[in-house]
Amino acid sequence: MSDSPHRRFNPLTNEWVLVSPQRTKRPWLGQVEEKKKIDLPYYDPECSLCPGNTRASGNVNPAYKDTFVFDNDFSALLPESSLAKSAGQHELLREEPETGYCKVVCFSPRHDLTLPDMSIEEVELVLATWTNESEALGAREDISYVQVFENKGAMMGCSNPHPHSQIWANSTIPNEPAKELASQTEYLRQHGKPLLLDYAKLELESGERLVAANEDFIAVVPFWAVWPFEVMVTATRPLHRLADCDAKAKKNLAAIMLDVTKCYDRLFSVSFPYSMGFHQAPYDGKAHPEWVLHSHFYPPLLRSATVRKFMVGYELMAMPQRDITAESAAKVLRDLVIK
Q1: 44 within a domain of the structure (yes/no)
Q2: 90 catalytic, yes or no?
Q3: pTM assigned to the model
Q4: Which of 1, 67, 218, 233 could form a disulfide with 129 if both were Cys (CB 3.0 to 4.6 A apart)?
Q5: Which position among 6, 90, 162, 164 bears the catalytic label?
Q6: Where are the beta strands (DSSP E) in the chain?
Q7: pLDDT digits over 82-122, tens only?
């Protein structure tokens, strides 16, 4: 791969990223985060997500033993909206109602147990919960898309260290899945095969950007990655949603998620922050042969546990930019996966 500046195309979003490998030698005099050793208790009486505790809403959590799901007390989406579609306004001032539902999914009653610390059976249970909640929300007539995501770490805006994720269900398809839908639809029309299945085949053949692989899924630093140690997990056969995973596929998905999150924690010897989300086929009542189940991991750390990547300046005004190549990042992560 070239050590000179170049740009790479993301076929999922039809966007470009600038790659500048020559910049890895530059000194860093910017912000350095404080590296903190955080020892969390098994149970925190002040935590709003621990079993038996009272949340801000006044609701009391049950004495749950595994996963726990509840309606977000500060939901970004509501089942109804009083806003009517804009009428009589200029086309540059469009607005319309957006309705939906927001759920919180606690991984475990344990306050100190992050995803990479869990057993494969416990991760499978989390996957089963995400699956069941996605299907229940997606079955609603007023829902077109279900987004499962996790923000891990204060650096990614997580307001409570108790390991948890969220599920937001929208009446329309949000921006990022909508871009991926358009790209995958067009690729299938042109080539007769799903984009991500072809991409997974290329990555398995190359191995350059591969982090981990099993019979049903691969984890790669995608060719077009923006974040320094970004990872995409994608199915290698026609699975459209979490619900399409049989028992074997669900176990393999749990295993590869553990591969990714465990090697993240080993990278800088810190509980690695990230935003992760599953992109499933829309729940809009249409068939989606173009769609392949996948998830994105977007971690902010760049050179160490105390130096992060900032999306500012050129990235905000022009296009995303990265220094280390996807191939270099993949090799670092691949070497940290326990074989």
Answers
A1: yes
A2: no
A3: 0.94
A4: 67
A5: 164
A6: 6-10, 15-19, 68-71, 100-106, 145-152, 164-170, 210-213, 217-220, 231-235, 274-279, 294-298, 301-304, 307-308, 321-322
A7: 877 666 788 898 889 999 999 999 999 999 999 999 999 99
